Amino acid sequence: MDRLLAEISRRHFPEAPATLEQIAAFEARVGWKLDVDLRAFYLHCNGAALFRPRLDANYRILSLGEIRRARVAIRGSEDEADGPASWYTLIYLQDGDYVLTDVARQAKGPYPVLDAFHETFPDPAHTRQIADSFGEFLEKALASGNEYFWLDE
Question: Does 6 or 149 have the greater pLDDT score?
């Protein structure tokens, strides 16, 4: 993560770091703990735009204050039919699309990362895993040249 975070600082648009108090307040609000990659990211910067400034960014990593349950962010609903309670937004991709994390699936420590196309959300056939961790996602995103790398897979 250190190499990826240094690249964000050098070539992208990071926000100021989150404090330990902000992280504790976030974890209390959502009811789950940041994994190692997410904690490192938020201690380095509390959100970031990749490749372009915030308003024009294809990849906008949300601040702790912007992370929401995916069904609330995408469907405006807390109903179970509108998506699992364990799916949370991490990255805004423009036009109501997000990259999510599933906090119910923590296989070797990190949470998996999922693609969420707003028009088909929460259909599991269209909400597929695109990285095993936030660190893996970030590495692929930074190498993508501002393209959505998983759409070519």
Answer: 6
Number of H helices, E strands in the chain: 5, 7
Q: What is the mean pLDDT of residues 30-44?
A: 97
Distant-in-sequence contacts of 33-39, Cβ < 8 A, 24+ apart: 35/106, 35/109, 35/110, 35/111, 35/133, 35/134, 36/1, 36/109, 36/110, 37/1, 37/110, 37/133, 37/134, 37/135, 37/138, 38/90, 38/101, 38/111, 38/134
CA distance between the termini of the chain: 24
* Rounded-to-integer distance, Cα 19 and Cα 42, Å: 8
How far is it, in rounded angstroms, from Cα 59 to Cα 122?
A: 21
Give the pLDDT band (50/70/90) at residue 108: low
> What is the token pair recorded at 90?
């991490």
Integer angstrom CA distances of residue 134 from 45, 89, 138 = 14, 12, 6
